[in-house]
Structures are given as C-alpha cells and as structure tokens.
Amino acid sequence: MKYMSTRGKVKGINFQDAVLMGLADDGGLLIPEEIPFMSINEIEALKDKSYQELALAIMKKYISDIGETTLEKIVFKSYEAFDDERVVPVIKLGDFYLSELFHGPTYAFKDVALQFLGNLFEYILDQRNDYLNIIGATSGDTGSAAIYGVRGKKGIKIFILHPKGRVSRMQELQMTTVLDDNVFNIAVEGTFDDCQYIVKEIFSDVEFKREHHLGSINSINWARVLAQIVYYFYSYFQTDAADSMSKVNIVVPTGNFGNILAGFYAKRMGLPINKLVIATNENNILYRFVKEGDYSIKNVVQTYSPSMDIQIASNFERFLFYLFEEDADKVRKSMEQLKVEKKIFFNDELMEKVREVFDATSTSNERNLEVIKEIYEKYKYIVDPHTACGIDAVLKLKNIYDEPFIAMSTAHPAKFIDSVVKAIGVKPEIPRGLRELEDKEKRVYELDANVNLVKKFIEKNL
C-alpha cells in the first residue's frame, strides 16, 4: 500500500514515511492510494476476534512496510494501558447502543489512536536511528492523549498548543501536569482554530519542517485515522445487527471531522453502515454543510463540549478528495477558496452525494444539559457533554431510520465535572488517574497566537 496527497503533488510514499511526514509536503493530507474493499463474508469472518486481533487484521491492509510480527507487538503494546480488556466496550441504553471509547489512560477516544501512534513513532525512529519533534494543536483531548502517548519516549519532543481558558479544567491539568523533559505545553491566547492555523502554517514551511524534523499527532496524521477505523468494525460486531450482517446508523460527535472520517473509510471498506450521523454543538459548520451545503467559517462559540468548539474541520479535505471523484486540482482550489473567502461552494449534485452517506444534527448548549439529565434519570448512566450531542442526534433521528443506532461515546464524564453537575447535580465517579491531578506540579508556557512566536519557541527548546 502506497500513500498520496489530497492535492496530488506527493505520491507513492510508503506507510512509515507517511507517518513521519504528517501533513504532506504540498500542503495536502495523506491518504491511501486505494481503499481495500472487503466482502460481507470477509467482514463476518472477523467478528469474533479480540480488539487487538481485529486491529491487526485491518491495519495489515494499509501497512505493507512493517512485518506482521512487529506490527502485532506494536498493536498489543498500544492497548495494555486500557482499563477494560475489551478496549472499546459497547453497552445498550434502551433501544440504542453506546460505544465507550474512553477507557484509555486519558479517558478520551483519542487514546485509541494516539497510544498506537506513539508506539509507532518510537519503532520507526529506532529503526532509522532518527528523531522527531512533534507539534500539534488541541481543543482539549488530543493534547493530553498525544502527550501520554509519547512522554519519555526516546528521540521525541512534543509541543502542544491549546487555547488558553477554552479547555476544561481536567483537560488542562492532564496536559500541564506532565513534566517529562520532552513535553512542552503552550497556552495560546485565542481559539482552537488559531492553534490549528499556526500548526498548519508551520507545516506548510517545508524547509522549517525538514530542518527541525517536525511530525504531526493531530488527525492530519493518517495513522490516527487508520487506528480509529478499527473501532467502527469492533462496535458493529457487538450489536445484534452483526448476527445478520444488516446495516446500522452510527452517530459521531465531531468538530474536526477526523473521528467520523474513520467511519467513512469503514463504510467504504464494506462495513454495513447506512448513515453516518455528524453530531455537532453550536459550532455547527458540518451540520450546515450537510443540511444546507453551507461550508462557511463563522466565529467560534464556547460551549459545554469544548473539544467540538471548532469551525475549520481539518480532516474535511480528505472527504473532499472522494467527493470530487479524486480530482486533486479541485481539492486544492477549494482549500484555497476557503482560505481566501472563508467558505466553499457546493452544487446540488454534490450535496446529493454527501447526503447519501451523511446526516447531521446540531445541539444547543441548553439542550446538551437536558440530554445528560434525561439519560441519567432514565438509565442512571452519566454521559459527558460531547456524548450528549451524539445521543441527542439518536433521539432526533431514531424514528426516521429503521436501522439501529450506535452512538460513539467520546470521553469520560469526569473530564467535564462542572457541566455534568450543572445538568444533574451529581458528580460522576472520578477515576484515580484524574483524582491525582489537582495536587501535581504544573508547567505551561503562554504565547500570543502568532506563527513566528511559536516557531521561535520551538527552535529555542530543541
């Protein structure tokens, strides 16, 4: 399997080089040159595998430059730190399923991919006797998961940008209490989109990127999307639909389009998915896109679900590549249009294609708390505000579609205590790994939202 850029100027690179490159050198995102399709019989043959066995079976289809024995060791090592042997347990709440993606070391879905990516980086760098300086932006969960994935690892330094005051207290503590010498937390005066813009601009400076051996842990890194494809298959296999290999709808709370993009690849691979439902909060650019063909950037609104407080969905470019029938020139022109005009135009024909795959909902801040309360009162089960956006989508759509629903639960409710208490008046049980954070020493660097300032900070600390 070889990889290419969505913008067409980078082609024929192997998986390990794609992992280290992160953002393609032409400014695009790296994707597999083909998506491996599986028949229903092939998919059904995987349904009794453990999570790790399933991950190995799927990842092998995308990785041809790492031996199977080595890949197996990397995969199994990546899920040792999870507090449930199933890695991603699936429960049933009434008439829908909930896939708990938060059993990793930082209690968020990002761990599923970033534990794998951290071990992957370590293996590749050791084989090449090389080093890597990782730079990434976070709206809350990516940062802590990335830091826990690479902290203390040989040959790696990590620089994480987060919007100052715009992540939850627990998310901030998870990042800033990691004092390993190779970890640098940067609080940026601005929004997550400002942080993401800085990272993309730095990666667009190819000379700076190569000189300083920069790599990415954001979901612009293909390995993150690949690792997330696995739990779509695994979650499906835990439902009754798997007995007859019939279709399901899958709801994904998303702001950056990375998580649901993995579902898109799973569907393209043959997994029986009817609709992928994009669940947004009030920062609803993806909802407006699906419902109205309106992909225009507006101001970011602070909500109870801060990891989704995003207007520029960085993984959207990968989907555009397929929407535009793999026309890299169209992708490049659309991304240039977005940068200049703050919007992309879509005709009715394209939107029909979009709606064959996706549906979408948007949840208000007030409704978010109502959903947390409804679920608690009905099932005595506590969900975080991001998951609540997904459950709201299920409640809105379950009478429209015949197929059963799986909602992706993306974070442990203890990471968002204030919102949960506001909704139900009860504190969720706090895992030991989170309880210990308040008393730990903290380290963080504050910078203005300026590309050159961040570049200078990186150079100073290499």
Secondary structure topology:
Elements lengths: L2 E3 L9 H7 L8 E3 L7 H5 L6 H9 L8 H11 L11 E4 L2 E5 L9 H19 L3 E6 L3 H10 L5 E8 L5 H8 L6 E7 L2 H13 L1 H6 L2 E3 L5 H16 L3 H4 L3 E6 L4 H12 L3 E8 L4 H8 L2 E2 L19 H8 L4 H14 L1 E2 L3 H10 E5 L2 H15 L5 H13 L7 E5 L7 H8 L7 H4 L9 E4 L2 H10 L2
Parallel strand pairs: 4-14, 5-6, 5-8, 6-7, 7-15, 9-10, 9-14, 10-13
Antiparallel strand pairs: 1-2, 3-4, 11-12
Note the main attributes of this structure:
462 residues, alpha/beta, Rossmann fold, 6-stranded mixed sheet, 5-stranded parallel sheet, 15% strand, globular
Word description of this protein:
Its EC number is 4.2.3.1. It catalyses: O-phospho-L-homoserine + H2O = L-threonine + phosphate. Residues 2-79 form the Threonine synthase N-terminal domain. Belongs to the threonine synthase family. With 462 residues, the protein is of the alpha/beta class. It has a domain at 90-105 and 223-428: Rossmann fold (3-Layer(aba) Sandwich), CATH 3.40.50. It contains 21 helices and 15 strands. The chain has helices at 15-21, 40-44, 51-59, 68-78, 110-128, 141-150, 169-176, 192-204, 206-211, 222-237, 241-244, 258-269, 285-292, 316-323, 328-341, 348-357, 365-379, 385-397, 417-424, 432-435, 451-460; strands at residues 3-5, 30-32, 90-93, 96-100, 132-137, 156-163, 183-189, 214-216, 248-253, 273-280, 295-296, 343-344, 358-362, 405-409, 445-448. The strands form four sheets. Strands 3-4-14-9-10-13 form a six-stranded mixed sheet, with helices on both faces. Strand 9 (248-253), helix 12 (258-269) and strand 10 (273-280) form a beta-alpha-beta unit. Helix 3 (51-59) crosses helix 10 (222-237). The two termini are 34 Å apart. The model has no long low-confidence stretch (mean pLDDT 95).
